Design the sequence.
């Protein structure tokens, strides 16, 4: 049986702006134990609504560092508590087997706050990944995009944030090349759905 093409079911890339996004967890990958003895996993999300609907947020890393063996104070576990609190339905004090995240997290919905994009330098090319700053319940009024904070353009290491020509020789009028922000602004500062007002 051959592949059945569906023009309405295509990958839309990663988000282009910061903001507060309603997302569904699409992937949960258990990573095992780290050097300090804590378990870790990462998640991928797909935006559920708004102008970034269908776009992805990858590599949100979580670590249970409550039993650190290097003498430092644990802090990373708080992100885990934030995630599970945002998902809801889990009684306080419940022990969760992190090795099973791939079985119980995919398909769950929540809201994530993106304030900035972190650089990722790989083989001489710098790209930018959204950094999740906070977790909350699904936003009743939908995702809110911060058009004042676009994702920086990828560039060669040491060259600064300068747009580089496409390796495919795409002309400047290529509709797939990100254009400048059109001036439309939707501020997320007026109301913070995560309760940090």
Sequence:
């Amino acid at each position: 049986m051959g592949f059945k093409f569906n023009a309405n079911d295509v990958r839309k890339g990663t988000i282009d702006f910061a903001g507060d996004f309603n997302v569904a967890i699409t992937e949960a990958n258990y990573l095992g134990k780290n050097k300090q003895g804590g378990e870790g996993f990462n998640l991928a999300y797909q935006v559920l609504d708004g102008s970034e609907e269908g776009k992805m947020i990858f590599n949100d890393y979580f670590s249970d560092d409550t039993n650190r063996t290097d003498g430092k104070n644990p802090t990373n576990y708080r992100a885990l508590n934030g995630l599970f609190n945002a998902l809801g339905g889990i009684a306080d004090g419940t022990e969760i087997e992190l090795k099973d995240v791939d079985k119980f997290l995919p398909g769950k919905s929540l809201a994530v706050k993106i304030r900035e994009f972190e650089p990722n330098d790989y083989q001489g090319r710098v790209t930018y990944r959204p950094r999740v700053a906070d977790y909350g319940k699904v936003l009743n009024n939908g995702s809110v995009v911060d058009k004042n904070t676009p994702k920086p353009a990828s560039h060669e290491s040491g060259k600064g944030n300068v747009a580089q020509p496409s390796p495919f020789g795409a002309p400047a009028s290529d509709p797939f090349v990100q254009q400048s922000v059109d001036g439309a602004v939707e501020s997320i500062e007026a109301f913070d759905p995560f309760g940090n007002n």
